[in-house]
Amino acid sequence: MESRWFRRFESTERGEIALICFPHAGGAASAYLGLSRALAPDIDVLAVQYPGRQDRRLEPALTSLTHMARAVAEELVLVPQRPYAFFGHSMGAIVAYETARILSEFDLPTAHRLILSGRGAPSTSPKATDRIDGDAALIAEIRRLGGTTGRVLDDPELLEMVLPTLRADYGALGSYRWLPGPPLDIPLTVMVGASDPIVPVDEARGWLAHSTRPGDVVTFDGGHFYLDAQLPSVADAVRSVLGQPAAV
């Protein structure tokens, strides 16, 4: 798939199923480098590259989650179809969900499964942590959540590079409002860190009401960025829900 919107880190184009991965706020496609390697060669990971970061850093970042979703949906309908699933973490969970809604609304081929990680259901009240005023508060919140982005903030030059993207992403999160509509006809798997400071497990479980299909909730040790520390377990769980054999 040649596209400015997707990045492939492994030569797994012949994998039985593709996994379209949506990064968190401030994140880039490279956030899924480890998961891509862990799932190769059976699952072909295509990480979404939003504008405004890494090799797309000269493009203005989008400030609407639904605009991000629409852009990804438009890109997906242009490529040859094969079975695929979505994996979205934190902000990426909302973008993945809205992308699936758009494809379903127009009766277009969509994901066989949604894996929604580190985010509460969109029908809940807007989170106070999504609306952050000022760079100091934004930096403090990123540090509190941990993950690789927090370590980047220790470098003044890197901080100057990533702040515009963080502002745009958190602005998009703060302005997002869920619009009621029919539930998806897609199975959902919800993943969450047991000690996530902003997403209680019960709040994450609320996603299951957004599908007509049976779904499940999987918890992992760790906080908001449990994926970093629990990569082998996450990869095993992804393989299981996608019906792929466990890694040897």
List the helices and strands and how they pair.
Elements: E1 6-7, E2 17-22, H1 33-39, E3 43-48, H2 65-76, E4 84-89, H3 91-105, E5 114-117, H4 135-145, H5 148-152, H6 156-175, E6 188-193, H7 201-205, E7 216-220, H8 226-229, H9 231-241
Helix pairs in contact: 1-9, 2-3
CATH class: Alpha Beta
From the coordinates shown, what is the CATH architecture? Answer: 3-Layer(aba) Sandwich
The succession of helices and strands, N to C, reads EEHEHEHEHHHEHEHH
Classify the helix fraction into a percent range. Answer: 25-40%
Overall shape: it is: globular
Which residue ranges are poorly predicted, with pLDDT under 50 across at least 5 consecutive positions? none
Strand content: 5-15%
Protein name: Thioesterase
Domain Thioesterase TesA-like: 20-242
Family: Belongs to the thioesterase family.
Keywords: Hydrolase
Structure description:
The model has no long low-confidence stretch (mean pLDDT 88). With 248 residues, the chain is an alpha/beta fold. It has a seven-stranded mixed beta sheet with strand order 1-3-2-4-5-6-7, sandwiched between helices. The chain has a single domain (6-124, 177-241), classed as Alpha/Beta hydrolase fold, catalytic domain (Rossmann fold), CATH 3.40.50.1820. 36% of the residues lie in helices and 14% in strands. Helix 1 packs across helix 9 (231-241). It is globular. It is built from nine helices and seven strands; from the N terminus they run E-E-H-E-H-E-H-E-H-H-H-E-H-E-H-H. This is Thioesterase. Belongs to the thioesterase family. One of its GO terms (molecular function) is hydrolase activity. Residues 20-242 form the Thioesterase TesA-like domain.
